TrEMBL record:
GO cellular component, one term: cytosol
Pfam families per the UniProt record, alphabetical: PNP_UDP_1 (PF01048)
Residues annotated as domain Nucleoside phosphorylase: 32-236
Protein's organism: Suillus fuscotomentosus
Protein name, entry field: Purine and uridine phosphorylase
GO MF assignments: uridine phosphorylase activity
SUPFAM superfamilies hit by this protein: Purine and uridine phosphorylases (SSF53167)
Example of a GO biological process term: uridine catabolic process
Family annotation (InterPro entries): Nucleoside_phosphorylase_d, Nucleoside_phosphorylase_sf
Length: 357
């Protein structure tokens, strides 16, 4: 860390860079593709316009952000690695760097629990979390305990989900006959091994986990580690505007400090205001929309695994489709981050932060 951090509550450097992603306002666009693989991020980056020059930042914490334009529409590609903690860094830190609405599509790999062939593309309409119960006795077993826990489902944004489905069909190369499934349920886990039912030398009490998932969750199709957390944070964002086709959620409650915690409540005088656009009447606040495209790399029923050639074909098609979905999705100009001072705006002497890949 080269620059002094200003605030321990939400760490930023003196020049406004967030702690983990390393970016600041004007370096990330409202439309975002997030991936886990660096080569995948760079491959999609090559699909962006030649002008303006691509902004690329690899942070000290291992996050890669690429920002440019696709068909003249600003877009960012953010590689976050794997798992819920990295999703949390990604969503929260970008939200504090960005004015206006935030559109996020996750493009990643997954395992499949049904008979879909590897190379299929799954667009989950909803996702559940499957997490290891750390209170379970994994050494001796516990006849009264539950080794894994399932959450309630959280839905993708229905409008962005539909736009993604349509864009993938339009961009499908004639030579590709891969299946696209858009009414599936995903499960995101907190482990690649124990919470996904894989057998290792650890005693994980997970031999029947996949069978239990299939019985407990109607329509469950895929397993991976990120989608639920993206959907959950998007839905949890205070002031989120639901689609007209979605069921209105109950009003949010105000969090309180538990009486037994011993933590004093904070007064309005010492609460840090982060981004002005995120403060005020919730009806005019920006929204977060989230959807996902999952490439089936592994079949958990047949144990088949995708070939490198199949991966290349699938990533090219899905990468293009996600870009089309994001850039064609309408966002009112007043709900976009300002062009002035951004890396996708005119080059200014005060804003030289552009780098070629």
């Amino acid at each position: 860390m080269k620059n002094r951090v200003q605030n321990a509550n939400f760490p930023k450097t003196e020049d406004g860079r967030v702690y983990h992603l390393g970016i600041r306002a004007g370096e990330v666009a409202n439309r975002i593709i997030t991936v886990g693989s660096m080569p995948r991020a760079e491959s999609i980056g090559k699909m962006l316009d030649a002008s303006p020059k691509l902004f690329s930042l690899y942070s000290e914490r291992g996050f890669l952000t690429i920002t440019g334009c696709y068909k003249s529409v600003p877009v960012s590609i953010v590689c976050i690695g794997m798992g819920a903690p990295n999703v949390d860094f990604f969503i929260r830190e970008i939200r504090e760097c960005l004015s206006g609405d935030m559109l996020v599509i996750r493009l990643g790999s997954c395992g499949c629990l049904t008979d879909l062939p590897v190379g299929s593309l799954v667009l989950p309409a909803s996702s559940v979390a499957c997490t290891r119960n750390v209170d379970f006795d994994f050494v001796s077993g516990d006849p009264w305990g539950v080794p894994y826990r399932l959450s309630k489902p959280v839905s993708a944004d229905p409008d962005l989900h539909s736009a993604l489905r349509d864009a993938l069909e339009i961009t499908r190369p004639p030579s590709l006959k891969n299946l696209v499934v858009s009414n599936a349920v995903n499960a995101s886990t907190d482990s690649f091994y124990s919470s996904q039912g894989r057998q290792t030398s650890f005693q994980d009490h997970n031999a029947s986990l996949i069978d239990h998932l299939k019985a407990a969750v109607s329509g469950i199709t895929t397993l991976e580690m990120e989608t639920f957390w993206i959907f959950h944070l998007a839905a949890s964002w205070r002031g989120v505007k639901q689609s007209s086709s979605a069921v209105n959620p109950p009003p949010a409650t105000v969090p309180v400090v538990p009486a037994f915690s011993g933590i004093p409540s904070r007064t309005s005088e010492n609460v840090e205001v982060l981004l002005p656009s995120l403060v005020g009447n919730t009806s005019s606040r920006p929204v977060i929309r989230a959807a996902a495209a999952q490439m089936v790399f592994a079949s958990r029923s047949s144990q088949a695994f995708i070939s490198p050639d199949q991966v290349n074909e699938l990533e090219k098609w899905s990468g293009r489709g996600v870009l089309e979905a994001l850039t064609k999705f309408g966002v009112a100009p007043e709900r976009l981050h300002p062009i002035s001072g951004s890396v996708w705006g005119p080059i200014e002497s005060s804003n030289p932060l552009r780098a070629l890949l």
